[in-house]
Amino acid sequence: MVRKKKQVEIELKLRLPSAEAEKEITAKIREGGYSLKELESLTNTDIYLDTFDWLLFKKQLTLRYRMTNGKAVYTVKSLSEIADGIARRRETEIKVSAPVAIPADCPVPEIKEIITPLIYPRRLLEQILIRTQRRRYRVISPEGAVFELCFDSAGFSLRGMHKPKRVPRLQEMEAEMIRGDVQALEAFAALLQKEFNYPPSPSSKLETAMEKLKVKIPSKKPPENLKVLPADRMDLALRKIIAGQLNWFCENLPGVKLDVDTEFVHQARVATRRMRSALLLFREAIPPALCDYLRDELQWLGEILGAVRDLDVFLLNLPQFKMNINRFPKKRKIIIAEWIEMHRRAPLKDLIQTLESSRYANLERRLRAFIESPAPQRPCAPLALKTVEEAAPAIIRKHLDAVIAQGLTVIGHPQLKEFHRLRINMKRLRYACEFVASAYGGDLDLFIEQTVDIQDCLGEIQDTVFTRDFIDYLFANWSSKLVDPEIIFILGEIYQLQTTIERQRRESFGKIWEKFSAEEHVKQMLEILFTKK
User: What is the pTM of this model?
Assistant: First the structure.
């Protein structure tokens, strides 16, 4: 593996009307006193990698796997604004000794060190392929600055989970600074601008590809038309909430069925849970029979998703277990992971069959019928005609009171079942706030963040409960079988580790809870809810 690192890439990028512009530009450059030497033409095949929800792109980074004449290189590059066609980007570029069969399984430690903290536990997926035919020149300016001048004809296509699509090719010129001062590149740009007035290329090839291919970055945030407003009737607000969550659920279904990343199951399960919670929180806004049917069916679906997700959490936690257990060799970790994967196959198969069943199809049809049906002029549901600003404060106050009361119970009787009840109450409070947050501007954001802190702590406690129950199940399953004693020892160590984790989380809970339940904090929350805008 050969390492090649650049701190900053500086280049001029111009959009060209056609491939014929190359002859005119090279002629003008020579007239301007520049020397040109034609270099070997190349064909670059670039695969851009990111998570399903484009986490790297959202954090202003791109990861590219490039094949050129049989040679492979990974490049991490920052996105940046382009001023007058000149881009300045930080990049790390590392060549690999041989082509990689599955580029998303990046084998380069230096690249993984940069990427993993930003995306874990998500996995990389192939997103876009760009194939560029590149004609190259070495250019020396009158001042002695050296550039690499490239004329690119680029074609774009979608990869991975996207549907195939064709778009027109991009014609572009790039001049990358190799040696010299940036002023030399600016002078070079001025020469071309004066003669041709070609527009600067406003974005990277990836950004251009995303624009041309109309790539939609998944987002849990509702679009403008689904944001809950203060004056919305509650039955309309509930329709908006269910629509946003159902859209997010359906966006994750292809990934669930292909099983390319555990995050798809997680996000689908969260969307299901949120829909069910919305129906519980605002149940008096729609007819009881419809509400009960949808909640019951969503609970059924959520339980099937949960059977897969619980095992995924165990697998995701294996690296942490290994760090905390001395006798945990890599070979044993692989064996344990394979055992979990084996147990995961059955619930995953059940999940996929469920998503292809007539029962699920009927649930989705009923959800869409509810979303798309107009709100009745004379509804029977008592909460339907109330506006969000009228109804939401009382609903949130009710669940805030329930959380405070259950928190006091936990402090007085810190039993696991009480922690679990508090977790359920906290989720309902958090969801209630998130569902109507757009009606309060950003006033609820800080409060929601604090509910997340407590919920995360409670969730980690609950994870220890599942892990111990699952290990008990494995031990019972192995009671009459020959099993490697070291694996049994390691699982026993994991079991004991759960007790330690649970104790630590209980201790940290007390500090988080004290801050959350402080009288001044609760008072501020109530002022936000009950102060008329």
Answer: 0.83
